Amino acid sequence: MTAPELDDSSEDWGPDDHVQVGRAGAVLAYIAQSLVEDPEQVRVKASEARNATRLTLNVAPGDVGRVIGRRGRVAQALRVVVRAAGVRDGQDVQVDIAD
Fold first, then answer.
1. What global pTM score does this model have?
2. Which of 19, 57, 65, 69 is the most exposed place for a label (fewest CB within 10 A)?
3. Can you tell me the mean pLDDT for 5-19?
4. Do 48 and 14 contact (CB within 8 A), yes or no?
5. Residue 42 near residue 3 (C-beta atoms within 8 A)
């Protein structure tokens, strides 16, 4: 598996070109692609939310359970890792998983 190409101006990375997803967006996309059966359907969108960057993860409908995990444990671990990656770039990052 190859690392996803990052292009902050791409529509997959958010409606606002000024939102910098940096390392956190790359980590989220890479881990999500590793978890799901259909990595081509993984999309990460960025937006600004109160003093933070909000990353929204979209996956194929059949892969939502894989990303959330039992009792939300996979989702919580994903949030912790992505937040840590954001801290390295000086960003406060929140992760949402879209159904």
1. 0.79
2. 65
3. 44
4. no
5. no
Can you read off the two tokens belonging to residue 15?
């409606």
Residue 70 vs residues 37, 41, 65, 73: alpha-carbon distances, Å = 17, 22, 8, 6
Give the Cα separation of 63 and 27 in Å (integer). 18
Q: Which fold has domain 13-97?
A: GMP Synthetase; Chain A, domain 3 (3.30.300)
Between vectors from CA 83 to CA 48 and to CA 65, what angle results, nearest 5°? 95
Q: Which amino acid is at 55?
A: L
**Domains in the chain: boundaries:** 13-97
Rg (CA), the chain: 12
What average pLDDT does the chain have?
84
| Ordered alpha helix ranges (H), the chain | 22-35, 64-68, 73-88
